[in-house]
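ugh finaly. both done.
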Amino acid sequence: MYKDRTKNIVLSGFISALMIISLYAGCIIRNNRIFFMALSTYFESIPIIIGGVKVGFLCYIASSLLSLILLPDKIYAFIFLIFGVYPIIKYFCEKESIIKEYIFKYIWFNFFMVLTYFLYKKIIIINSEMIKNSILMLIIILEVLFFIYDYVFTKFITYVKYRILKEE
């Protein structure tokens, strides 16, 4: 029993470190911020696969707190607080039928996007005329990007489970 607990603590610490390194890289290499945010959430799926959702949630909490403390860009860290929970959301959504799965995922994603929009709107002055002219195109692009992100994420999870961990 203690061996599993120790393994989960070490795994969570290691994955949290990888997530913080990835997020920090997103702060330094500014034109790849979305990539590094996605990469950090991919890392977060590993504790869920190996130790279960409880271990994944503890890893998320640890990396979220560390991101708020260590990252120089607090807005980026706050966005990770919202977006970083996605592997846990994905875990629960994928227990449902495929239609419910995508409905729940897109509800979460759109909620996340609205929350992020209002965060940026309060902090950064956004040209509302520019937004009005491009909002529909932006929404369509983001929905497609989320679909691609989720598809690649599923492939990553499958690769980790069946190639690296060699689960049956």
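ok and the 2nd:
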Amino acid sequence: HAFGPEVSQAHVYSKAVTPIVEAVIRGYNGAVIAYGQTGAGKTHTMVGTRTRDGQGMAPRAVADIFASLEGKASWAVAVSALEIYNERVRDLLSPSGASVEIHEVCVDDQRQTFRCPDATMWPARSPEEALDALADVVSRRETACTEMN
């Protein structure tokens, strides 16, 4: 999906992220990827602001996932965050920002997925713990300009 600057966070979430969150709730892995040049608004889209209308994709997804778990006897949530920067995949939850490898995996003849077995998996027992992981991620990402700018 690609959206213009006039589109609300709620619209982006409902069109692009809700189907992924629904799959995660059913037990599948999910990934939301923001791509663009430095200063294009990737962090704003993914994290947003503290207001309900301004919340980004990650806080909305966290809220929906944990709301779906209320009343369930057994569940586990783990958060991981990867950054692809200058052809290098970095684990943003690793204190060292270690490089990790992504492996493509065939599910069947028509579907493929990916695995990143060395990525840090941050257990989250509450929305607050998941959002704490997000705060760590934002502070560790690369923000330098690229030649495209």
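summary for the 2nd one i guess: Residues 9-25 form the longest helix (17 residues).
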